[in-house]
């Protein structure tokens, strides 16, 4: 297996060694971390080169190396499964609405319900990841939501339809475990592309289900099932996928590079933290709330589109169900490249301009997505509408990837809760947007898309308020006296430091100096400002 980030040739080294894939002539690409920027831990025994926290420095997308790349594949496939089940009803709405006599308001409310369920579950998921580890968190949510997917076959009223879609939506909390898990497995210099790829390929389920469910429905119809029976039987497939993925995550997953969380805590490798402290440092960091808003109008608009776009093209351009589904699928399927692109762009800009580059990249991508959403709402012919849809998907989904290129740097101690809050913000934004713009009979879907684009542009402006003392903001340079160590250890009091609880934050601070960008080589940490890495 070849890894990007070497000198264009095949990686050399002994399998099982921490130097596997390192030649000593590394260049810095988006899929690897140069040894000059982040030293490799040569004593660790992993299939990929790792840093001092045993986080992988190389991202081999087609590898299943344990534990780093195996975890990556478990993450995105489990998230992909949950996306399929959450939005499985959307492409079948023209059939379901006739069977259950649904009104436009019922359909809109069901769409809101499908993304609102995970607001609460994503908040809880962040805390569960911090306290129990992402493996249990992911597996339990996936399997607990399986019965609700099967229940779609039993509903007989609008109330039942809305309720079941609400409950299935809880499964989207796997996004939080996905992003959290990746942040524990991969170095910060490549976390943008890793998070972007894992979430983007997971979000791909929103497009895949637009193709899968109508196709499955047609196959079941051809076997002799009636129209109103076929769509119900189709939901057994996503339900079965939930059970399979839940078992695979439990059996094959691993919380941390060095083992599962409980086992590592027993050996003293990780200190057991208090949830009250984790929560406090998450909610008192103003950057958390800005990202809640930002994600509400990147992922939020994406989730809204997943719910309404098939019906929109079906009704506005008088298309067949399968044709509308194929066009709608193009939006979700763009995730295979667009969200990873956002992560790559974030990492690349950070290598040149540091954290300030990440913030500019996020603002540009999300604003572009909002402008294309306006264009989609104003398009009166099918070809232009499809072009606008594709460009809109590129901007919005890339912004999602760029968002989680920054989130892991907000706080080392409260990463799970902050990821959960940010993820919940995406679902809250989706629910609010769909409620305001797509449930009102007096407001056409086209106008709803236009207004949603305007809201996206407006709600992206607060990115300009983000500022990291050690790295700066979009318009402000960093403080000359601020250091990464000071920023990340400020979350611990003296008593906690005496117990060594800050040690992992110190390691993270050391590796995050790459966020200085081009200054990293010319602006070393001031003397006598780096705390000693001991328990004193």
Description:
The protein is an all-alpha fold and 536 residues long. It contains 23 helices and 2 strands. It has helices at 68-86, 93-100, 104-132, 134-144, 146-150, 158-168, 174-185, 191-222, 227-234, 236-252, 261-266, 275-283, 286-296, 299-316, 321-333, 338-353, 355-378, 382-403, 415-437, 445-460, 484-489, 494-498, 503-511; strands at 467-468, 472-473. Strands 1-2 form a two-stranded antiparallel ribbon. A hairpin with a 3-residue loop joins strand 1 and strand 2. The radius of gyration is 23 Å and the shape is globular.
Quick recap:
The chain is mainly α. The protein is 62% helix and 1% strand.
Q: Total helix count?
A: 23
Provide the low-confidence segments as ranges.
Answer: 1-30, 520-536
Order of helices and strands: HHHHHHHHHHHHHHHHHHHHEEHHH
Q: How far apart are the first and last residues' alpha carbons, in Å?
A: 43 Å
How big is the Rg? 23 Å
Task: Note the main sheet.
Answer: 2 strands, antiparallel
Strand content: under 5%
List keywords for this structure.
1% strand, 2 strands, 23 helices, single chain, two-stranded antiparallel ribbon, 536 residues, mainly alpha
How do the helices and strands line up, and which of them pair or pack?
Layout: H1 68-86, H2 93-100, H3 104-132, H4 134-144, H5 146-150, H6 158-168, H7 174-185, H8 191-222, H9 227-234, H10 236-252, H11 261-266, H12 275-283, H13 286-296, H14 299-316, H15 321-333, H16 338-353, H17 355-378, H18 382-403, H19 415-437, H20 445-460, E1 467-468, E2 472-473, H21 484-489, H22 494-498, H23 503-511
Antiparallel strand pairs: 1-2
Helix pairs in contact: 1-7, 1-8, 1-10, 3-4, 3-6, 3-7, 3-14, 3-19, 4-7, 4-10, 7-8, 7-19, 8-9, 8-15, 8-16, 8-18, 13-19, 14-15, 14-18, 14-19, 15-18, 16-17, 16-18, 17-18, 17-20
């Amino acid at each position: 297996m070849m890894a990007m980030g070497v000198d264009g040739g095949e990686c050399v080294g002994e399998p099982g060694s921490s130097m596997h894939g390192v030649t000593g002539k590394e260049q810095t690409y988006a899929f690897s971390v140069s040894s000059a920027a982040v030293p490799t831990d040569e004593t660790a025994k992993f299939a990929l080169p790792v840093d001092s926290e045993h986080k992988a420095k190389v991202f081999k997308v087609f590898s299943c190396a344990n534990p780093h790349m195996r975890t990556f594949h478990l993450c995105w496939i489990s998230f992909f499964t949950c996306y399929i089940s959450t939005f499985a009803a959307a492409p079948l709405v023209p059939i379901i609405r006739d069977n259950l006599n649904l009104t436009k308001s019922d359909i809109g409310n069901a769409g809101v319900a499908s993304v609102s369920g995970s607001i609460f579950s994503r908040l809880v998921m962040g805390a569960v990841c911090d306290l129990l580890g992402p493996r249990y968190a992911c597996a339990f949510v996936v399997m607990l939501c399986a019965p609700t997917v099967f229940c779609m076959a039993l509903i007989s009223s609008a109330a039942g339809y809305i309720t079941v879609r609400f409950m299935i939506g809880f499964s989207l909390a796997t996004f939080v475990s996905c992003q959290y898990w990746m942040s524990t497995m991969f170095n910060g210099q490549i976390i943008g592309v890793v998070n972007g790829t894992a979430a983007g390929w997971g979000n791909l389920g929103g497009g895949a289900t637009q193709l899968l469910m109508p196709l499955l429905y047609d196959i079941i119809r051809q076997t002799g099932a009636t129209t109103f029976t076929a769509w119900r039987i189709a939901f057994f497939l996503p339900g079965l996928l939930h059970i399979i993925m839940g078992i695979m995550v439990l059996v094959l997953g691993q919380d941390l590079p060095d083992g599962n969380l409980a086992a590592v805590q027993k050996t003293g490798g990780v200190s057991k933290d208090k949830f009250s402290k984790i929560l406090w440092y998450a909610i008192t960091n103003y950057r958390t709330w800005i990202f809640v808003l930002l994600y509400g109008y990147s992922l939020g608009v994406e989730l809204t589109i997943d719910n309404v776009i098939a019906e929109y093209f079906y009704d506005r351009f008088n298309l067949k169900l399968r044709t509308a589904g194929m066009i709608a699928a193009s939006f979700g399927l763009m995730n295979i490249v667009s969200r990873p692109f956002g992560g790559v762009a974030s990492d690349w800009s950070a290598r040149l301009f540091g954290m300030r580059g990440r913030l500019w990249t996020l603002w540009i991508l999300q604003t572009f997505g909002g402008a294309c959403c306006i264009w989609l709402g104003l398009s009166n012919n099918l070809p232009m509408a499809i072009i606008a849809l594709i460009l809109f998907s590129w901007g919005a989904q890339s912004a999602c990837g760029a968002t989680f290129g920054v989130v892991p740097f907000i706080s080392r101690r409260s990463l799970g809760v902050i990821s959960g809050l940010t993820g919940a913000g995406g679902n809250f934004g989706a629910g609010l947007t769909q409620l305001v713009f797509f449930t009102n009979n007096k407001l056409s879907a086209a106008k709803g898309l236009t207004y949603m684009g305007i809201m996206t542009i407006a709600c992206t402006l607060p990115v300009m308020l983000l500022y990291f003392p050690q790295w700066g903001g979009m318009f402000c340079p960093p403080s000359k006296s601020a250091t990464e160590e000071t920023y990340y250890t400020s979350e611990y009091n003296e008593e906690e430091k005496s117990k060594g609880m800050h040690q992992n934050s110190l390691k993270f601070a050391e590796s995050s100096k790459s966020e200085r960008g081009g200054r990293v080589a010319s602006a070393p940490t001031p003397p006598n400002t780096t705390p000693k890495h001991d328990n004193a």
